[in-house]
Amino acid sequence: MSTGRFGVPADVRDGAIAVGVAAALLVAGVSGERSATNVDLLGYVLLAAGGLGLAARRRAPVLVLAVTALCAVGYQAAGFDVPAVAYLFAVYAAMREGHRIITVVASVFLLAALPLAALASGLHNVGEAFAQARGALEIAWLIAAGAAGEALRQAERRADEAERTREETARRRADEERLHIARELHDSLTHQISVIKVQAEVAVHLARRRGEQVPKALLAIQEAGREATRELRATLEALRDDGTTPPHGLGHVPELVERARTIGLDATLTVEGQRYDVPAAVGRTAYRIVQESLTNVARHAGAATASVRIGYRPDALVVWVDDDGKATPATAPVPGVGLLGMRERVTALGGRLRAGPRGESGFTVRAELPVARTS
């Protein structure tokens, strides 16, 4: 339910206006000092009904317009020379909702019907009937009510268009900024990474051609160049927002493990629990944790094996990455950019991250990512 400036619900305001208008019409009708005949009672009922009908002017403006017009004709025919105040409110409401043609047609009908109703009330002078009808519904007030409703409708429409324009402008600027960043990344990084990748592949090719053993460091550079190229391509596609490439998630974790094997690391992947769909943000974070952990194992741990475990729990997704490297409890890990990035991703999802030495040797990364599941 909508509320106004002072927090009063719209239905309450409409009801109060309807009761006030009905009371004003009844007071005006009573002040006419008419006798208590059946026709008079019908006139009082029409006066009250015309006012109380305004309570539904927001929900059914056309119906209220018709009801107030018929009530005005009815109590004029019953001999009540009372202004058609309720009808003016109905005109305002109908114009505000955009029912211009119906409002004009109804007003023309009322202007024609009121003199006939005055004649039916007992007046025999046509001039007096038109004068009474003019007094009941002043054309100036009718035009003013319609103009006020139309003006407010136009103002609300312009406000909606302005808000929509602001949102479209903000989206356009964001798109332009993403494209600008994408161009900068493409121009500044793509060339350098391509040079590194090509040079490493040439060096590996020449070493194998000469029958020499390829150094592991050179293989790691080659694979890192390929991975950087893939990551940069994915980042550029995301920035360009073309919607053709899905983001990395849990489905891409086996690829990470397989790449780790290609550089000589005995990596394994284990999935525990019943699989279920997780939010995209959780899947992306799990992928990044495994990616960064395996990268650290390959670069810094001096490990021969690494195990990746994905655990599906009822309320959380748990990711473990363990290795048998040279880390020991006596050597406190120095948090680098990779670990800090993992911790920020996990914290942003409301999860927990533990990264440190395990047992006598080796390093472990354990992330618990909450998952809100619907039944």
Short précis:
This protein is of the alpha+beta class and 375 residues long. It is built from eleven helices and five strands, in the order αααααααααβαββαββ.
Radius of gyration: 39 Å
Strand content: 5-15%
Give, in spatial order, the strands making up the sheet with the most strands. Answer: 1-2-3-5-4
Largest sheet: 5 strands, mixed
Shape: elongated
Q: Write the H/E string, N to C.
A: HHHHHHHHHEHEEHEE
Number of strands: 5
Low-confidence regions? none
Separation, N- and C-terminal Cα atoms: 30 Å
Helicity range: 55-70%
- Enumerate how many helices there are, as a single number: 11
- Rounded mean pLDDT score: 76
Structural class: alpha+beta
Oligomer: single chain
Give a description of the structure.
The chain has 375 residues and is of the alpha+beta class. It has eleven helices and five strands, in the order αααααααααβαββαββ. The protein has helices spanning 10-30, 38-52, 61-77, 85-96, 100-120, 126-136, 139-209, 216-240, 253-262, 280-301, 337-348; strands at residues 266-272, 305-312, 316-323, 352-357, 363-370. The chain has a five-stranded mixed β-sheet with strand order 1-2-3-5-4, with helices on one face. α1 runs antiparallel to α2, α2 (38-52) runs antiparallel to α3 (61-77) and α3 (61-77) runs antiparallel to α4. The longest helix is centred in the middle third of the chain and has 71 residues, at 139-209.
Q: Could you outline the blueprint of secondary structure elements for this entry?
A:
Elements: H1 10-30, H2 38-52, H3 61-77, H4 85-96, H5 100-120, H6 126-136, H7 139-209, H8 216-240, H9 253-262, E1 266-272, H10 280-301, E2 305-312, E3 316-323, H11 337-348, E4 352-357, E5 363-370
Parallel strand pairs: 1-2
Antiparallel strand pairs: 2-3, 3-5, 4-5
Helix pairs in contact: 1-2, 2-3, 3-4, 3-5, 4-7, 5-6, 7-8, 9-10, 10-11
